[in-house]
Amino acid sequence: MSFLNILDDQFRDPAGCVIKIDGQEIDDLYATLVDVSVVSPRQDSAEATLTFETRRVDNGTWNVQDDDRIRPWAPIDILATFGEREDPVFKGFIRQVKVEFPEQKGSAMVTVTCQDTALLLDRTERNTRWGDDTPKSDREIVQTILSDNNLSALDTPGEGQSDLVVNQNDTDIKFLKKRAQENAYDLFFRDGQLYFGPMRFGQDAQPTITVYAGPGTSCVSFNLDDDGHRPDAVVYEVATDEGSETNEQTVEPDLKVLGDTHVSKISGQQGDFAWRLKREGNSNPNQMRGRAQAKANEESLKITATGELDGTQYGHVLLPGDPVDIDGIGDKYSGTWYVMQVEHRFDANGYLQSFEVARNAYGGGVSVMDNVLAGIL
């Protein structure tokens, strides 16, 4: 039996949470577990927090912090259960254990903070110059770092920028985050494998999120922001053969359009809308173009939203870095969105998933009738 299932049996097959340390379920500690939170972004490492109540036992030890399993660097897996199905939520390591002994006896708490597999790339700082002998691409750098750390990629890493000569004076994961930002790439670990590449707009959409759909509603709340004051293009300058003179180059977003009408069709009615990218250091033309393309893609995601899912009703683990269909918010905004971040929370109130999504287009909505099994266990 999983955590939550022992707290609440008012629903048929409610969503639950299974926690495994060193591959073994800690079912004997579920009675002391207060809540579990996991934050999973698309451009950073995922973190999990487990909060336990701890009690002194007869022999003078404490039942949680003295448990040999509760220790830094212990491998940990967190899964959501839907009936007989278990879906992964988090995979990583315990990073930190904190114990609080307040004045009021009987209120001692243990907080266990965990980080995903990225923690393995945050142990040693490199002082190296990539491409010093032969210029390299971001893909080649990522593949070398993964090989050096005995890790694998979820998909073939993105090519990124080519002809790079770049310094690394940081840990591998901090350096990779900088490279991901330079390319507007996603960077996350899923089931222990690294994804480093363009936003995955071409993936199949996850099960439909339903808003105001009567008994079929899976979304508890939904808040949308359509910000028109973001540019449709990015302008940058490159040096010419004349030396002091420069040429202007304009870059437009090249992401797949998640709908019928791209956002630029609306904002462009008032004329050109482009912002200028400032030159940084000795960036070569390829680096400047890559940086401009990254900026243009990010700015094109003008429509953003936040919401909260009833995990039992939705019946799935929402994943960052993949598209999802959202229905019930009108013809203009219903359709395919991209999941930017998800926070999972398991406690006595059930399983809730708070999410952030974005899109670059209007229309293209899907009816919930097209996916009648969405949210059904």
From TrEMBL:
This is Phage protein D. The lineage of its organism: Bacteria, Pseudomonadati, Pseudomonadota, Gammaproteobacteria, Oceanospirillales.
